[in-house]
Amino acid sequence: MNRFVWLGLVVLVVAGLWTGGWFYAAGETRNALNTLGANPEAGMTCETLDITGFPFRFDLACTGATIVDGDITVTVAGIKGSVLVYNPTHAVISAQAPIGISDAFTGSQRRIDFQSAEASIRLEAADPLLGLTGEGWRLARASLVAEQPRWSDTLAGETLIGSASHLEAHLIDMPERHEPERGLSALAAYARLDDVQAPAFEIAGGEVSLEAELSGLPDDLRAFATPDAVQRWRDAGGQLKLVRLEGTAGEEFVRSNGTLALDSAARVEGQIQLTSKGLVERTGTLIPEDWKGVLLGAQAADGSYSQTLNLRGGFIFAGLMPVGQLAPLF
Fold first, then answer.
1. Omega of the bond leading into 98 within 30 degrees of 0 (cis)
2. Which of 34, 229, 241, 281 has the most CB atoms around it within 10 Å of its CB?
């Protein structure tokens, strides 16, 4: 038997193994989704489910998706996901509008519309060999970009809550903050909304941006699904650092920064600095007139307000005055 015959046999064997592996993975994916949909209290079902892309991709298309989590039911016109076989750590996901959100407990009904929405998720493992068993994967980057998002209340007719011309949000791993010996990682968060419209607050042409850092997170994604995930984050000394939160509309603005964590009793503690201009006037009757100065601070010569909110011992303090109480998170 000459070498060309041997080469042909090798090609056939490899092709057969590849084909079998692809269809096996596709079948396991379908079975996992069917199992997920079998739980009436927390699951996902599709009116139609297609898995295509052989031989080099896995393309999943779910139309008429229904996601249930307790009292919350989410319906999505369509969800598509795509993964390259030779790059399985990177997934691209898109959705079709509308997305309906209903709460059986409160009776609320919301709808999210958009022109387009696409997410990208990339994972990485410190040890690729262990990663084959599902161990040690952490988030490298997750991004969401949506054009013309629109959020409406649909309980009685349709009332616009808010809209924007562009939305983008990113979670990015901070490798310099990774602590493999403790199994901890950190993420940087960025988000932006352009041309915000919020009729209830008489906001038109607003801009919102967020920059934050989350530390003390597990570096194994499986840990996020455990019941004690929040407690483990607290015990690891996890913090939410609000680097900058800013909303502007013309000459009016709201700016905030600070750091939050959980104390030994699982209550939020930390400090938030709040500076605003025009916010006091926009609160209307939402905040009693006597409390506006307490919560948002005294007015400066330029018309802005500033206040420091301290959270400790289960209470919220505006300066030295307690203005609210917080329940433990677990």
1. yes
2. 241
Q: State the amino acid at position 214 in one-letter form.
A: L
Cα–Cα distance measured from residue 197 to residue 203, given in angstroms and rounded to the nearest whole number = 6
Tell me the mean pLDDT in the region 248-276: 94
Q: Which residue has the tokens 């209550």?
A: 267
Interacting residues of 321 by C-beta distance below 8 A, sequence separation 6+: 294
Name which residue leads in pLDDT, 312 or 31.
312
pLDDT score of 1 more than 60: no
Runs of H (alpha helix) within the chain: 3-37, 128-131, 229-235, 279-282, 289-296
The span from the CA of 85 to the CA of 186, in Å, is 28
Helix, strand, or coil (residue 132): coil
pLDDT in tens, 278-291: 876 776 666 776 77
Mean pLDDT of 97-121: 95
Residues 6+ apart with CB under 8 A from 304: 275, 276, 277
DSSP helix/strand/coil, 130: helix
Q: Is 277:305 a contact under the CB 8 Å cutoff?
A: yes
List, for residues 116-169, the tens digit of each pLDDT value.
999 999 998 876 666 666 677 889 999 999 999 999 999 988 999 999 999 999
pLDDT value, residue 109:
95
**What is the rounded CA–CA span in Å between residue 23 and residue 20?**
5
The rounded distance, in Å, linking the Cα atoms of 110 and 20 is 44
Instruction: Look at 180 and 5; give whichever has higher pLDDT.
Output: 180
* DSSP tag of 183: T
**Burial classification of residue 295, based on how many CB atoms lie within 10 Å of its CB (0-12 exposed, 13-18 middle, 19 or more buried):** buried
- pTM of the predicted protein model: 0.85
- 41 Rama class: left (phi>0) / alpha (psi -120 to 50) / beta: alpha
Distances (CA, A) of 79 to 45, 48, 149: 11, 11, 16
Sign, Cα dihedral of 322, 324, 327, 329: negative
CB 268, CB 238: distance < 8 Å = no
| 264 DSSP assignment | T
